[in-house]
Design brief:
There is one protein chain. The chain is an all-alpha fold. The chain folds into two domains: 106 residues, no CATH class; 62 residues, no CATH class. 65% of the residues lie in helices and 2% in strands. Strands 1-2 form a two-stranded antiparallel ribbon. Helix 4 runs antiparallel to helix 5 and helix 7 packs across helix 8. The two termini are 48 Å apart.
Length: 192
């Protein structure tokens, strides 16, 4: 996820037992902000600044990155204007708040994705393409039902799901009695 505090609060309350990961690309945006305090936007120096700290993040050295940015803020405080100081303080605060979700070395070793691009693409494909048509209005239960069916279909599980659903419906309607289609009285074929 990104670093949105309300989103993290919700995820931590609802998704217990999961590994929560700060999207690397959101963390990277903050590195670029910090680099532009000291270097021009398209300069090789800005790129080197980001590359060096990105490698530290990927190695699990978030504390080093935070400490280094703090040192830079202290060392250059007098020559930085108020906006530049505020930018560095924001970056440092962002990393401090999200430090426990930035163990990228562990996530990579465990095979976890550290960027949300695939998830965001799946959300667009699964949710947005279906739910945001012209004039559509959804209740939460209705939207959830449609999205569950869409996920089953898009995953290629429609036929097994439908067989399961028919068995469950037969059990609900007929109890423990075994349900089977009736034979048509005039022919040997069965009708449902």
């Amino acid at each position: 996820m990104d670093g949105s505090r309300p989103l993290w609060a919700l995820a931590l309350a609802v998704l217990r037992g999961f590994t929560h990961i700060l999207d690397l690309f959101h963390a990277l945006e903050y590195l670029w902000k910090a680099s532009h305090v000291f270097h021009a936007e398209t300069s090789p120096e800005a790129e080197a600044f980001v590359r060096e700290r990105l490698l530290d993040l990927l190695r699990g050295k978030v504390g080093y990155v935070i400490g280094g940015l703090r040192q830079m803020l202290t060392k250059h405080r007098r020559r930085l204007n108020a906006s530049q100081r505020k930018t560095l303080e924001t970056v440092i605060g962002y990393y401090e708040r999200n430090r426990r979700y930035m163990r990228y070395d562990e996530y990579i070793a465990a095979g976890y994705p550290i960027g949300s691009g695939a998830v965001e693409s799946a959300c667009r494909h699964l949710v947005k393409d279906r739910m945001e048509g012209s004039g559509m209005r959804w209740t939460v239960p209705g939207a959830e039902a449609v999205l569950k069916l869409r996920a089953v279909y898009l995953n290629g599980d429609w036929d097994p799901f439908w067989q399961f659903h028919m068995r469950q419906e037969a059990a609900r309607r007929f109890g423990r009695r075994r349900w089977a289609p009736l034979a048509h009285p005039n022919t040997s074929r069965q009708v449902a």
